[in-house]
Write the structure tokens for this entry.
Amino acid sequence: MSDDRFPLLRSLGVDGYLVTFGAELSEPANRAALALHSAIERAGWDGVEESTTSLISTYLRFDALSVDHAMIRGQLQALLESQDWFAADLPEGRRLWRIPTVFGGDLCPQLDVAAELAGLSPEAAIAQIAATQVRVQTIGFAPGMPYLGELPDAWNIPRQTELTKSVPVGALAVAIRQLVLFPVTSTTGWRHIGQTAFRPFQPEAERPFVLNPGDEVLFEPVDRATYEAMRTSAPNGGATFEVLA
Amino acid sequence: MSPRLLIHQAGPGVTVQDLGRPGYVALGLSRGGAADRLALAEGAALLGQAPSLAALEMAGMGGRFEVTQDTRIALTGAEMRASVDGAAIAWNASHLLPAGAQLIVGPAVQGVYGYLSVGGGVATDPQLGARAAHLVASLGDVLQPGQDLPLGDDASKAAAGLALPRDDRFSGGTVRFVPGPQTNLFAQADQERFQSIPFTRDTRGNRMGVRLIPESGGFESEAGLSVLSEIVVPGDIQITGDGTPFVLLAECQTTGGYPRIGSVLPSDLPRVVQAAPGTVLRFQMAGLEEGVTIERRAAEARRTLASRRTRLVRNPHDMRDLLAYQLISGVVSGDPQEEP
């Protein structure tokens, strides 16, 4: 935040700009990225085709065939100078989700090794994750897939060097003080510690992308039988939400 | 009853594709759409219709198809052996496919992705605003024998039996890229070496991206090992953990944790897309301004594709005669006309 290199405005590809708010993940940089994204969407500049955020940056793609780089760059620069983005509010209409989760066991065999890396017993690991209200810092990688953080410092554990070939939809995985929740079957370098019956991407639904950046999530431990029942009968895999004021 | 395209046989990678779904990248869904967008534009130009209409993309291998009403078709992209009721038909050309006739599209002769466009377009129900299959997102799926697809009304009066000249994008060559936010994570010497050595397209590749094997030495970046997951876009040249480049294509993920040395220009991406395993590619850096100029020129060329159409030399309805013509032209030069 005190680093005056940021925000840093650079081109990405021949038709995009990337604004980076920090050298590493921080809550203010994440908030800044989300707020700038909202502001770009609101601004509705000519030629802008889409925009998005990563953990600490905001990207916009524009029609470089009809709009000059200088134009977009100037607009972005002016917008960046218009306020302190690190102090920006979180997006409006945020939700707090409670997502029932089975931790460990046959479904997610990497809980024990992840807990050990975090220096915790499996029970303490579950308790700590369940007690941490994490925020959707960005949606990315796969459709509707949330990056959630931050977990307590103990969870600053590396990604594994070998990839796990396949984790199922609803898998909860951990690395570097973050959680990810898989919307599609995927390979991953993150450790699979929990399993939910929640589908973050529901292409057939009226609201296909269930979570939004800024939403908060609690992963609530349930037993295997409860999970199995929710898989088949509960809407949203038993997950519920309330709107945050 | 609206006309239908019957799929009697299909290679393992035949999908419906259009220009994809812009606007969902913030929700983790990449644009997707045709791997070789120029081929889609060529198909549209041959049929005199909008490039936004959906077509079949055929990875490496086509299939056996039939239509329930006489339908104009165009075959573009990677050249594949194609025939109607046993008689060969020209590639990069439009034809009238009579109802009930068997269109067979075989393996690619050169390149990877061939396209079968139809008059009126493939008219399956859009999902999230597009018809393109996005396999990673479980939107749509590869087509299976026995499926049949609805076709749109062919409003265009344009004739069939037209051809477009072929370019050289199916045989590798030089690909231009612009530098990006992470280019300087790579040593200057590596940036230069990246532009001086040849790369061979690996067997690993799909609609998400293709791996390229450097002739010598990888491009590991010490600083790049600790980059935070960042936004990635089609065309980005990621350098993976083992130092080999991986060029991201239409169906790539929306974020990635590998450092990127630059981004391939959109108009040069078809050259990467159409490089079959073993094909040699080289990279050349272009400045941003130069990149924009190249893109504007390419867009103009796409807009004026229709003006470069020529009539197929022989009557396209006379399949036997056409077969003879094709054999002769194939022996003599392969391409009757080269694009300037």
